[in-house]
Amino acid sequence: MSSNFTISLFLLAAIACLSQGCCPERFMQVGNRCYYYNSDKVDWHDARHACNRLGAHLVSIHNYEDSREVYVLWKSLVDESWDKAYWIGLHDVQNENFFEWSDGTPMDYSLWYPGEPNNHRGEDCISPLNRGSNDFDRQKWNDFPCGTRKPYFCRRSATS
Ligand SMILES: [Ca+2]
Ligand SMILES: [Ca+2]
To answer: Which protein residues have their CB within 5 A of the ion that is ligand 2?
Structure first.
């Protein structure tokens, strides 16, 4: 990589940083939000803790735009869109059928796959099911066993 190119990338990042706040290293910036994707497959609790260690939380989704933002980012990062999707912050670990986001934000929107959540053999942790013929259906959620291993998405705010 030429040094001019490196300097240009640095300047671009700095300009984004000035206008919208900065993201930590290894995070991807979308507006004033910072995303971190890890393709290592881990259980939901490990994913939650990994995000916390980065000063972030598993993503929460409060409208379709939130869902789409994460999904589009994921599709740009993975080679195979039939991969096992990714953990998000929704769970009913504390109280069965009482769903909450790990970042403490209210449960004010849902995008369940038809027939879900079904708590099949005790499922308390949520990921898109990645099933269906179009991008909208593939974003819809399923409750999985929390011990299932999946990649995960963390999010935090950019700092100004
Ligand atoms: Ca459950
Ligand atoms: Ca389920």
So the answer is: 116, 118, 120, 123, 142-143
